[in-house]
Amino acid sequence: MSERPITFFFRGGQQQVENVVPTTTVLQFLREYTQTGKTRQTGTKEGCAEGDCGACTVVIGELVNDSLQLRSVNACIQFLPTLDGKALFTVEDLHTLLPTQAGTLHPVQQAMVDLHGSQCGFCTPGFIMSLWSMYENEQYSPSKDQISDYLSGNLCRCTGYRPILDAAQKAYDYPRVVLERQKVLDVLKAIKALPALHLNDHGQQFFAPKTLQDFTVLRLQLPQARIIAGSTDVGLWVTKQGRDLGDMLYIGQVEELKKIVVTDHALTIGANVSLSDALIKISDFYPDFQELQRRFASMPIKNAGTLGGNIANGSPIGDSMPALITLGTRLILRVGEQTREIALEDFYLDYQKTGLQLGEFVEAIVIPLREEQTRFKFASYKIAKRFEQDISAVCAAISCELDTHYVAHNVRIAFGGMAAVPKRAKYAEAILEGQPLTAELIAKAQEALSQDYQPLDDGRASSAYRLQVAKNCLKRFYVEKILSQAITRVNDLIALVEI
To answer: What is the percent of the chain where pLDDT is above 70?
Structure first.
């Protein structure tokens, strides 16, 4: 790899940046960097520096199948080199989209003014950028649920949100103003032709290979290098803990790892597929996954983060793992030219310790698809203090196959937040396996959870609370997925008799 500047679309043209620490965040670049005179743009604010408040929200444009994909992300935890080959838009860019005289506001800005969506104003640029991404991606006025999803990463402590939600719909009443995308696409295509990025600044290296082969070779050469994807977790190691990440190997430019492949029997998701895309695709095949999809994280976090990164991180409170475990997910792990498969539940050995060998990495996630969906029952429940944008106290997932006599087969129960790793409830599963599901049997399985888990007390929840919630989730699954179906069946039979 040849060394060259970080190159991306910014302020209407190609921006090059060099001689920066690779862990410099996009937010630091915007507010502090002065090499070209184009920055020190203070519209983008720093609130939490951990991707929670949304004051730093910007929009990233990426070349996807010769089209421009625009998505909101948190600038405070995105490393500047990850912008290479992409486009960066901030609140200062919105006036450049307007064909009229200076001082005219973009429709999303004007709507916020007219409906009093801003008070102190600190969070407002972040809200504006989330609304702008929605405005560009949704041609027609979206529903309030859609608006809430787009704004799920933005916090405001002044207005109470109602005027902001109203402004989101009002923006579509003004004459429409959209981004001229062709200029951006031309610049991104030119940057794509450049060699792969390799930085060596301030004693730290950053590699961004473009092919799976190159990534594999580098991984073998640098087995201790930190693999970087969306940096939605690793970014906090820098901004909150001041950790030195050492050499970094960025997976975000590897096209082969961005693919989703669907066959008759499996859904295979590349390790570099964003959480947004991965969760939507899983929900297409497993509709009961939709609640978890919506509550998993804020939209900017899901846009930046990857499913492969969420799994490889090994957090005991990662929301994807319990659900994927119950679906029978397997991982494809790669080192050099060798690959192997491992069940997701066997991947976790101890707290944030996985079964990855030296030089090995997660290449893909393989989720089985079932021909007979009517017999398969699945549910996932996220329990947290807030509906949106919160870490789970407990995340539960339960699945089984039912025969016509309500006998359960292939029972799988998994929890996050209950142990040092995402873990199946083997004792509870054994009670339910091969038995007709009744309220009495569920009660026995609930008690068996005390053998499966001894949860810890922490600031998020007590041990007793977690155990009770886990039991409640099992009962909820029975009521919603088993008992309700039985009642519906009985009602159908009664209706037939009456006919």
So the answer is: 94
Residue 352: its pLDDT value, please? 83
Q: Are residues 330 and 268 in the same domain?
A: yes
Among the candidates 173, 198, 233, a domain finishes at 173
What is the H or E stretch that residue 411 is in? Answer: strand 408-416
Using the predicted structure, report yes or no on whether residue 103 has a pLDDT greater than 80.
no
Alpha helices (H) along 4-102? 26-32
| CATH number reported for the structural domain that contains residue 201 in this entry | 3.10.20.30
Average pLDDT, the chain: 91
Mode of pairing for the β-strands spanning 348-350 and 87-89: unpaired
Q: Taking Cα atoms as reference points, which of 383, 344, 367, 375 lies closest to residue 474?
A: 383
Give residue-wise pLDDT tens across range 294-303: 888 899 999 9
pLDDT exceeds cutoff 60 at 276: yes
What is the rounded distance in angstroms from the CA atom of residue 467 to the CA atom of residue 472? 9
Whole domain around residue 212: which residue ranges? 6-93+181-250
Residue 430 lies in a domain: yes
- pLDDT category at 5 given cuts 50, 70, 90 is very high
Q: Which helix (H) or strand (E) holds 133?
A: helix 124-137
368: which strand partners?
266
Q: Which two tokens stand for residue 57?
A: 């929200």
Please check whether residue 331 is in contact with residue 347, taking contact to mean a CB–CB distance below 8 angstroms: yes
Q: 267 with 350, same domain? A: yes
Q: Is 0.90 surpassed by the pTM of this model?
A: yes
What SS3 class is residue 487? helix
Place of tokens 């970014």: 235
Of the candidates 477, 495, 474, 496, which has an alpha carbon nearest to the alpha carbon of residue 485?
Answer: 477
More confident residue, 32 or 59: 59
Angle between helices 463-477 and 439-452 (to 10 degrees): 150
Q: Which of 346, 368, 390 is the last residue of a domain?
A: 368
Q: What tokens appear for 262 in the block? A: 């669907």
Q: What is the enclosing helix (H) or strand (E) of 163?
A: helix 162-170
